[in-house]
Amino acid sequence: MSEPRASRSQTVEAGASFSLTSTPTAPTAQVCAVCKRSDKILRCARCKVTVYCSKEHQRDDWKRHKPSCAPKQTSSGPEPNLKTSGSPDSLPNYFSRRPPEAQDPAIAAEQLLVAEASPINQKGSSEDTILGARAELLNPALEGSEILRDMPTPQHYGLRNFPEVSLGGKNGALPISPLSKQIDDRVIDHYSRVVVKDMNKWGVCAMNDFLGPEKGSLVLDEVLNMYSAGLFRDGQLVSQRGGAGDLRRAIRGDQITWLDGKEKECPNIGLLISQVDAIILRANKMLSNGKMGQYTINGRTKAMVACYPGNGSRYVKHVDNPNHDGRCVTAIYYLNRDWNVEQDGGLLRIFPEGWKDSVANIEPIFDRILFFWSDRRNPHEVQPAYRTRYAITLWYFDADERNMACQRYQQERKLSQSKNT
Fold it and tell me: How far apart are CA 310 and CA 189, in angstroms?
C-alpha cells in the first residue's frame, strides 16, 4: 500500500511581499541585508535571493528591496501539488498581495440593486435551499447505516425536521460499507492533519491530486453525463425575490444540481463525498485541532454540483454563510482539465479576514480540493470564466448553529403564514 501523497510546492501567484521561507545557511556566507547576521537566515519568498534574519528586518528593508524583488522564474512543466504550508513564517503560496479595489461599475450597480431588494447585502447560497434540505448523514461510508433509515421526516411549516445524527454504529464503531474499503486510512489521516493545520492558521486549505487522475476522471464523467442529460438548473441567491431573474443571472452565472452521493448512477461522486466526509470528521474529532474543535460537525448539505458556462459567467464577492444558517466549513472539488486561468478565467479569489494585505488565489484545476471557513471570515468571488468549468461543493454544519437556524426559520415561516391568513 502506497504512502499518503504529500503536497509539493506550486506557485499560483507570487507570494505576499512580507513572506519568508526557511533556507539552510549556504556554504558561502549569506548575511541579513540589514544587520549582516549570518545565522538563522530566512530567504525572501518572492525573489528567492535576498536573505534576512527576521521578518522585522525584511519589513525595514522593503522600501529599498522592492524595486529589485522579482519572482524567480521557473521552467514550465507538469503542475505539481500545491504547497499547503511552508515555514512557520510563510504564507501558503496560493496567497498573493491583495490587488487594489477597482470595482466594475456594472457590478457596483448590481450590488446596489440587490441591497435595495434584500436586507442581506452579502450574498450567499440560497438560505431556503440550505435550510429546507434535510441534513445528510455524515459518515465516511454513506451507506449501511440504520441511524436515519426508519426516522420520519414530518413537515412543519414547509420545513423538514432536522434530526440529531449520531456518527456511531454498533458499539461506537462507524458503519461499514463497500465504499469505506476504497479509502486509505493513512491518506485520510494525512489530509485531516493538513486541513487542521492550514485552517487554524490561514482559514483556507488547498491540495492537489486529491483522488488521483483515474478516480478524478470517473467523477468528471459522471458530472458530464448529468449535465448532458439536462439535470442542471440556474443557481439561486440568498433571499432572492421574485422578478429578479435577470439580476440573479448577472450576479451568479452557475447552473447546479444536488446529489446525496447515494445515487446508483454516480458511485464515484459517492466515493468523493465519502472521502471528504471522512477528512472533516477526523479533523473535527482529533486532539489539539484548534478552531476545528470549536464545532460539533454531524451533518452537511447535499453535494452541489455546479457548472459555470464559459460565457463570462461569474459570482461576485460574497459570503457563503452571512446569516448564521449553520454552515461552518466549505469544501470545493474542481474537475477542469488543462485549465489556464490567464486564458480561461474562473479564478476563485478569497479575501481572508485578518490578512488585509493578502488574498488566496485558487485556480479551478482538475482534482484540486479546497476547504475554507464558510462564515464572514472568508468573503470570496469567482471571476468571469470563458470556458465551461465544473465543481462539486459540500457545506458542513455546526450542530448548535444549525439547530438555532432551523428554529429561527420555522418561527419566521409561521409568522409569515399567520400574516397571510
Answer: 37
CA angle 69, 74, 78 (to 5 degrees): 150
For residue 223, the tally of other CB atoms under 10 A from its CB is 23
Helix, strand or coil for residue 112? helix
- Is the pLDDT reported for residue 360 higher than 80? yes
Q: State the pLDDT at residue 46.
A: 65
Containing H/E element for 219?
helix 213-228
The three-state secondary structure class of 180 is helix
Predicted TM-score (pTM) of the model is: 0.64
**23-50 per-position pLDDT tens digit:** 333 334 578 888 888 776 777 766 667 8
Which DSSP state fits 107?
A: H
CB-based burial label for 4 (10 Å; 0-12, 13-18, 19+): middle
Report residue 124: phi and psi, to 5°: -130, -165
pLDDT level of residue 269 (50, 70, 90 thresholds): very high
Cα 361 from Cα 327, distance rounded (Å):
22
Which DSSP string corresponds to 330-349?
Answer: EEEEE--TT--HHHHB--EE
CA 127 to chain centre: 18
What CA–CA distance (Å, rounded) separates 69 from 20? 13
Which domains, from first to last, does the chain contain?
A: 105-419 (2.60.120.620)
C-alpha cell at 392: 462539486
